[in-house]
Amino acid sequence: MGGTFLFDGQPVPFEDGQTILQAARAAGRYIPHLCWHPDFPPHGSCKLCIVKVGGRHVSSCALPARDGMEVESNTPEINGERRALLQMLFVEGNHFCPSCEKSGNCQLQALAYELDMSSARFAHFFPDRPVDASHPDVLLDFNRCIFCELCVRASRDVDGKGVFALTDRGIHKHLVVNAESGRLADTDFAVTDRAADICPVGVILRKRVGFAVPIGERKYDRASISTVAMEKGE
Ligand code: FES
């Protein structure tokens, strides 16, 4: 049956079962997101996709579109809240973009540019999260984890391995490897796994290919994440 809703004042059609984010994307309208991925069910954790519907803030990746609803997305208020969420993500982890080999290909960094985030604003937590270089082909830098659980979901639901998990709560929440030793080398993780290429930031990195793409030619060097996401269907 489907219907139509207003997205920032413009009519957007939707089909039954589509979320606001899915319908908006199908209509060429970008909504910032981090934990949502077109190949996986909505997760609803990062809240970057918030929009305003009927005066309430909702996660557009999870809320089904309804006929006649009025959705506000690209407004100073909503973008300001998205910026604050980004700032919290930056201070919760250890994100040093200039020295990170995911720089230029990182969704967190690209969204910070997209939303004009010029400083972290809050005090940094500087959590202590050792890296895991035990695997022959992949390095894990837990410092950059944003808890989107895409690697958890990909490893469990696509690869059928369940290599990753999140543990603890609040500032102590962190990504772990499901092995008695806690080391990636002691799992059956492979560089060909879906989970190896799913991280939107710089946690899961292939060895021996760091900084292979020069500055200026990286994913988000030439176009903003909103443009890239719509072109590539991400
Ligand atoms: Fe919707 Fe993360 S993209 S909550």
Automatic annotation (TrEMBL):
Cofactor section: [4Fe-4S] cluster
Pfam family for this entry, one: Fer4_15
InterPro entries in alphabetical order: 2Fe-2S_ferredoxin-like_sf, 2Fe-2S_ferredoxin-type, NAD-red_Hydgase_HoxS_gsu, NADH_UbQ_OxRdtase_75kDa_su_CS, NADH_UbQ_OxRdtase_Gsu_4Fe4S-bd
Domain 2Fe-2S ferredoxin-type: 1-77
CDD domains associated with the record: fer2 (cd00207)
Highest taxon of source: Bacteria
Sorted UniProt keywords: 4Fe-4S, Iron, Iron-sulfur, Metal-binding
Chain ranges of the 4Fe-4S His(Cys)3-ligated-type domain: 77-116
Family (UniProt): Belongs to the complex I 75 kDa subunit family.
Protein name, UniProt field: 2Fe-2S iron-sulfur cluster binding domain-containing protein
The species this protein was found in: Aromatoleum toluvorans
